[in-house]
Specification:
It is a single chain. This protein is mostly helical. The protein has helices at residues 7-25, 32-39, 43-49, 53-72, 84-95, 102-117, 125-146, 151-170, 178-191. The protein has a domain at 60-191: Tetracycline Repressor, domain 2. This is TetR family transcriptional regulator C-terminal domain-containing protein.
C-alpha cells in the first residue's frame, strides 16, 4: 500500500528548511539541492511542491509570517482601553514583530533579505506588499485602541521605527541589543 503524504505538512517542512538556509546562509543558498538535503527529501519531492527558487523563498517568508501571525493572535485587542492597558497591548504587538529573541531575529533576517531582494526580483513583490499591508492593519488597529488622533499616519511612523530597529538589530550597521530596542519602543509608545 502506498504511503500517504500530508501535502501541507510536507510544504511546511520544505518551507522551514528553506527558512533555515536563508537565515544561515542567505537567499542564494536556497537551492533545490540544499533545501532537499535540509528537509531530508529528494530534489524531486521539493520540486513537486515548489517549481522554482522564488516560490521556495516565498514559502519561507510566508512561514515566517505565519509564525508572527500565531504570536500576534496571543495578544487580542483589549477594546478601546484608556491608558496603560492599550499601551501595553501596542508594545506587546510591536514586540512580536521585531528581533527581541532568537526566533524573531531569524524571521527579521529573512524578511529584510526578501524586502531588499524584491527591488530587483518582481516575484517577491506580492509577498512584500502583503507583509506591508498586514503590518499596517495590525498597527492601525493597536493604535486605534490607544485613541491616537491619526492612527494611519502614526502606523507609518511606527512601521518605519520597526524597520529601522530590525535592520539595526540584525546587521553590523547598528548591532542594537535587545535592551536598547525595548527602551526605544517604550519611549516611543509612552510619547504617543
Amino acid at each position: 500500500m502506498p504511503v500517504q503524504v500530508d501535502a501541507d505538512q510536507r510544504r511546511r517542512i520544505v518551507a522551514e528548511a528553506a527558512l533555515r538556509l536563508a537565515v544561515d546562509e542567505g537567499l542564494a543558498s536556497v537551492t533545490f539541492r540544499k533545501v532537499a538535503a535540509a528537509a531530508g527529501l529528494n530534489i524531486g519531492s521539493v520540486r513537486h511542491y515548489f517549481p522554482d527558487h522564488e516560490s521556495l523563498v516565498v514559502a519561507a517568508v510566508t512561514e515566517a509570517g505565519d509564525h508572527m501571525g500565531r504570536r500576534l493572535a496571543l495578544h487580542p485587542a483589549p477594546g478601546r482601553a484608556a491608558g496603560d492597558a492599550a499601551r501595553k497591548h501596542l508594545f506587546d504587538v510591536v514586540a512580536e514583530l521585531i528581533p527581541l529573541d532568537d526566533e524573531k531575529h531569524r524571521e527579521a533576517i529573512i524578511l529584510m533579505e526578501v524586502i531588499a531582494a524584491s527591488r530587483m526580483n518582481s516575484a517577491f513583490e506580492p509577498v512584500v506588499r502583503q507583509m506591508a499591508t498586514d503590518l499596517n492593519a495590525v498597527l492601525v488597529d493597536a493604535l486605534e485602541q490607544i485613541g491616537v488622533a491619526d492612527p494611519r499616519q502614526e502606523a507609518v511612523r511606527l512601521a518605519a521605527l520597526i524597520s529601522g530597529l530590525s535592520l539595526n538589530a540584525i546587521t553590523p550597521h547598528g548591532s542594537l541589543d535587545r535592551a536598547t530596542i525595548r527602551a526605544v519602543l517604550h519611549g516611543h509608545i509612552a510619547a504617543l
